[in-house]
Amino acid sequence: MGLELVLSILEIKKGRRPAFKKAEKLLNSLSDSKCVEVYANKYDVGDDVPQISASNARQSLKEALFTVKKGWYGENGIMVVCNGIATTMLIAGDATWGDNVTECEDMFLFAVSGMAEAAGFLVGKNRTEYLKAQRMRNKKFLG
């Protein structure tokens, strides 16, 4: 395996700030079995998923939330906040020879757990509604 660049990106509407308290509230409401299920998503289909206790899975999700918060507030060296035309992006990335990039994995867990959507990032229903509104604006603008 050669050197690869691994990136993860979360977007939020420009001018908005993530509601990390809502993400934390969602995390605290997840059942133990849901935490284990979400944690297992970080493994590829067909990989042996190691057994993990619910408390360790929940701790991994808490660490994911903490990583994303640190990245948003500029406290993580391989994460950056960039302004686009209509969104603000949180980008994590690093070069790797095949090892996992922890920050990218944490952003993935943050997203698949539902915390990203709860915080207002454009994933799931938030993204669908955003894209629909963008298409309507474009249609109106282009005639």
List the helices and strands and how they pair.
Blueprint: E1 4-13, H1 20-29, H2 32-40, H3 54-72, E2 79-83, E3 87-96, H4 102-112, H5 115-119, H6 124-142
Antiparallel strand pairs: 1-3, 2-3
Helix pairs in contact: 1-3, 2-3, 3-4
Provide key terms for this protein.
143 residues, 17% strand, three-stranded antiparallel β-sheet, single chain, alpha+beta
Distance between the termini: 49 Å
Q: Tell me the strand order in the biggest sheet.
A: 1-3-2
Helix content: 40-55%
Computed Rg: 16 Å
Main β-sheet description: 3 strands, antiparallel
- Low-confidence region ranges: none
- The count of helical stretches stands at 6
Polypeptide structure, described:
The chain has 143 residues and is an alpha+beta fold. It has one domain (4-142). The chain contains six helices and three strands. The protein has helices at residues 20-29, 32-40, 54-72, 102-112, 115-119, 124-142, and strands at 4-13, 79-83, 87-96. Strands 1-3-2 form a three-stranded antiparallel beta sheet, with helices on one face. The longest helix is centred in the middle third of the chain and has 19 residues, at 54-72. The model has no long low-confidence stretch (mean pLDDT 86).
In short:
The protein is an alpha+beta fold. The chain has six helices and three strands. 51% of the residues lie in helices and 17% in strands.
